[in-house]
Design brief:
Radius of gyration: 13 Å
Strand content: 5-15%
Structural class: alpha+beta
Number of strands: 4
Protein name: PspA-associated domain-containing protein
Number of domains: 1
Helix content: 40-55%
Strand order of the largest sheet: 3-2-1-4
Pfam family, one: PspAA
Shape: globular
Organism: Actinomadura darangshiensis
Amino acid sequence: MIVRLMGEGQLDVADGELSSLNTLDSELESAIESGDETAFRAALRALLDNVRKVGKPLPADSLEPSELILPPADAHIDEVRAMLGDEGLIPD
């Protein structure tokens, strides 16, 4: 799956990694629903860090379509709330 990290570029994330990313996505959703800014920051950081860890960066000149777009680390809780779909940021 090609993932775009807004402001950073694209990474190729193996399908086998999606389960762990979905767990982190669920934690992020819970933090947003509760309005807990501290938990939101920690959950967003954990999700983005994990994507960076398991993903393989694509060349900067790559034109691959992104299947998933994740917000930047400094995104506001309301911005991320607006990005959430029925299945969170990362579909099951």
